[in-house]
Specification:
The protein has eleven helices and eleven strands. By secondary structure, it is α/β, with parallel strands linked by helices. Strands 3-2-1-4-5-6-9 form a seven-stranded parallel beta sheet, with helices on both faces. The chain has a two-stranded parallel sheet with strand order 7-11. Helix 1 (13-22) packs across helix 6 and helix 7 (186-197) packs parallel to helix 11 (255-261). The longest helix has 14 residues, at 222-235. The protein starts with a strand and ends in a 6-residue tail after the last helix.
Length: 267
């Protein structure tokens, strides 16, 4: 069974490749726009291509049975049509529910007529690095909604699930809502970062407009959208589930575990 991983040198795609190889997959093809810089594991077949350059895809899709589809909105309709034409039998996509901008990916995959599995995720644990500059500057971290709560998930756990689904049967037509193992407020996260780096940190509530202004340098036009999402999570916190453990046999990474492993990012 030949498995294609798209965006194979991206933050999640590369981890999908690694988990496939670790699980014993022996026919993995990696789609990358920069083969010379890919540094992929030995035994992985490299296909030069890019989801936004659809002319590069037919050759990469040839002979593929299953595919991990990275979230690229602009060309998804053309990509899945080419996948169907190439005879790809199952697409595992990273997308999102109807409340996210990523839902069109799931819709396009379903319309393609190829067997599908959707992986829906919320906020990545790695987004906590947005606090790093403020933490390095002092012990108080300003935020509009310290009480906003979600169940952040690491990119590695997403990749681990994708690999498990690609390598096993029984997932066609399934949508998996992936979360981290616990629901935490933003203030909780700051406390856990403080514990990991040996400092007492506190989150200080500020006005919504100030929070947007602070996030704009790192998020650009998405800063307002992000803060609006935080406001919703005050009254409607994301609930943690056990889907990652159920699918992989190992629990999801806790925020505290991730912070300890990445503590230098905040020092």
């Amino acid at each position: 069974m030949k498995i294609l991983v798209t965006a194979a040198t991206g933050n999640i795609g590369r981890k999908v490749v690694d988990h496939l190889i670790a699980a014993g997959a022996d026919d993995v093809r990696a789609l990358t726009n920069h083969p010379a810089r890919a540094a992929l594991p030995a035994g992985v077949e490299i296909a030069e291509g890019y989801l936004r350059r659809v002319s590069s895809l037919p050759a990469a899709f040839e002979g593929v049975d299953r595919m991990y589809l990275a979230p690229v909105l602009e060309t998804v309709d053309e990509v899945v049509a080419l996948a169907k034409a190439a005879g790809i039998q199952h697409i595992v996509d990273l997308s999102g529910n109807e409340h996210t901008e990523w839902q069109p990916i799931a819709q396009a995959v379903e319309k393609s007529g190829v067997d599908w599995t959707h992986l829906y995720t919320g906020e990545f644990t790695e987004n906590a690095t947005m606090f790093a500059e403020q933490i390095r500057a002092g012990d108080q971290v300003p935020d509009a909604y310290p009480e906003a709560a979600n169940a952040p998930i690491t990119m590695d756990d997403i990749a681990r699930v994708a690999a498990a689904v690609l390598l096993s049967d029984g997932h066609a037509g399934q949508t998996y809502e992936l979360t981290g193992p616990e629901t935490l407020t933003r203030a909780d996260k700051i406390n856990q970062i403080g514990a990991a780096i040996g400092r007492t940190l506190t989150m200080v509530k500020v006005a919504r407009a100030e929070a947007i202004q602070q996030l704009t340098p790192i998020m650009g036009e998405f800063a307002e959208w992000y803060v609006e999402g935080l406001a919703m999570m005050v009254d409607h916190p994301q609930q943690a589930n056990t889907v990652i453990a159920d699918l992989t046999g190992a629990p999801a990474t806790t925020f505290a575990q991730w912070v300890v492993a990445n503590a230098d990012s905040f020092r």
